[in-house]
Amino acid sequence: MPTTKSTVLRPGHIPWVLAVLLLPWLTACESVKVVPIQMARISQFEVYEQTFQFTEAPWPPVQEQTLDQLRRVNAQMDSYLRFMVGPENWQALKDRYGMSTMREELLNRELRIRGFLHSVISLNPFRDERFHFEGAGRFFLIRERTGEILLNGDFHLIPKVHPVDQLKAGFIDVDVRQIITRIPGESTHLHDTTVRYRIHIDTARAHKDVYAIDYRAAHPVYLIEDPAHERTEDAALIGHLYFDERLADGKLIDLRGRELLRDDYRRPRTTRDATYE
Question: What separation in angstroms does the CA of 243 have from each of 14, 135, 193, 231, 271?
């Protein structure tokens, strides 16, 4: 009787067979926009510290400063902190601790803000080359010498749309509205102000469309009076922010695969176009 010759697939042949079978499917996926936009949303939790800087260069010790230098530093601090925490709240802190003590601790960076932030990055459903950066958190002004909490408050990121290409520039400017809510043991006056964080971005993998916060950088903090029109270069630098580096390696902003995102979303009629532009 005639015999039929069978083909035996050896282990080395299997990857080639799978590749042939899967190639049409993989090719089709590359040209089909099937991924819902919310799958590209990135959520991160950050812990940070912020130091203050009220002079462009280090000043000599208090006992070596001239009367003119003392007046200039005091006036600058007084102006910035009145704006940041509100005149009534700043006066309450000066009355309790004394201006000279506050001044010394600020210059020595012994007054720090500690806080936490939950942020969300969402790609724009109508223009995926742009993204929304939103978030909120809480902060505490702390005396390092004693561990006292001088005041605390809440903040939220002012809604804004950023171009993805801005990440390639190595930084993004984020405006934050801070709201003072409590000075322990004092009558606290509600006060809100805007600061701008220039967040440095790690662009080592930008060629792959993968980014991350630069956790080793000192991120400048500016006082902003007019968020809509004031340029960062014209704003007053008041300190630097430092993110906690723990688990930083796992916090990536991976924007690869945007070509697979669905593009059949309709702009809601009840929402202003400016929100998405």
Answer: 48, 15, 22, 24, 35
